[in-house]
Amino acid sequence: MLASAALATLAVSGDGLAQQPGNAVATTDPPGAVAPAAPAAPSAAPATASATDAYTGFRAEFDAGRYAEAVPYATRVLELAERQAAQPAAEEVQVALMNLGMVQNLSGDYVGAEATFLRVIGLVEASGRPLHTRLARAYAGLASAYHDGKRHDLAVKSFDQAIALVRRHEGLLTEQQVPLIEKYIDSLTELGRYEDALQAQKYVLRIATRAHGERTVGIVPTLEQIGRWYTSIGAYDQSRRILRQAIDIVEEAEGENSPRLVGPLLALAACNRRQMLDPTQQPLATPDAERTNMFADPGVIGPTGYSPGMMATEGETSLLRAAAIIDGQKDASPAQVVNVRTQVGDWYQLRAQNQRALPHYQQAWQAAARITDKLDGKSYTEALFGQPVLLHMIRPENWNRYRARPPTEVEIRNVVVEFTVNDKGRVETPRVVDDSGDPKRGERTAAALVSTARYRPRFENGEPAATPTVNFSQPWILLLPPPATPAAEGVAVTPQKPST
After folding, report:
1. Which domains, from first to last, does the chain contain?
2. How many angstroms separate the CA atoms of 387 and 377, rounded?
3. Cis upstream peptide for 464 (omega within 30°)
4. What is the pTM of this model?
5. Of 158, 175, 256, 190, nearest in space to 221 by CA
6. Contact 107/74 with Cβ under 8 angstroms?
7. Helix (H) or strand (E) holding 378
8. How far, in Å, CA of 366 to CA of 287, rounded?
9. Which uninterrupted H or E stretch holds 21?
10. pLDDT digits (tens, 9 = 90+) for 443-453
């Protein structure tokens, strides 16, 4: 979790609000949590609330994960801190602002969080004796707001500031900065700055190596993370190489049935699956020379030109091995069973082997029913099997042919298709609900769904079931027509349609 997500707590006494230095409570979002698209509108905190009541209400909502409801209490705490402070830049005001910015960001109010963290930064820098740790947290909070709001160019600049401050005052290879660097890597990757992201990944690996040793199981989670990142950018050979390294380390230290193998094995299968489905990897035996050279390690010799058959065999073997390891663990949690068995089922579903997918889905469904926690506010059974889940689809040809054009020259129109997902996870009886102004776009979208879409089917009582009235929206990037030329007197100008 970002350093900015640490809760800078306030000690409340009868005399008012005072900062309590060094007391921070790290917080994390629940697994699978998704930030709301827009902030909720919670009821306001009582205007007459005392400092104690306001902070108590804030802390209760925060600890319960009700971040939008915590915002008015945090706002009230800030108001009281400002009223009682001897000067506008007082430390208690800074701390109250940090708390407010944090819950604004967690509740999805990224614009509000941006303004709050910018104010903190201004106050800290103008205070005459800036607290560099707080300034680092404020920049980290600002970076997080930009990151979560998909403003990655601004996020990178703030991450640079935050990381520089952390290293200046806490040291270079400290584990505390890892969550910060991980989001920094994500923003760099979103901007296509892969080489910069790779250097940041290597820095994280240096931190893990310093803390745990070069070939110990302690660095395996970091190796798995880097392997998954390589997969996400299409550097598949590099991903396999580092994931195999992680697997070798665990096997040497703990044997072939270690639970620590599950993560790297699943990651290896995900790498192979993604490459087999990647249209840019056709033929699969021909590697991407530019990307291979970009991330090649000259000190490591590894295979290139991995065949589809080899990938399929290795991916399936890795998944089944992970499932066997989980089955052999007496203390394996239902969530672990759900995770592994769902991924095995998805593997077979994508390969059109429905009967082989079914028993794995059923095991996952049964395990999900034993989990009492929520996933995105739903039971695990409802979240994973309550509706069809799109696993893969090849988009219609040329849907994004103008993606490189400036935003001022294009517009996005969406084709909406309604259909049934049958109990095999295939699309039936498509009906174009909105063709975005061109019937051909609707026809091409519907044809792509029927021929290429693969869904995990909905389950009822442990059995796959057909689901009618499923909607799919396909964006099309279109050229805007050129500006209209003023018509000659008495001559009508017919509006032009966007180019397809």
Report:
1. 1-212 (1.25.40.10), 389-479 (3.30.2420.10)
2. 15
3. no
4. 0.79
5. 175
6. no
7. strand 378-379
8. 41
9. strand 16-25
10. 999 999 999 99
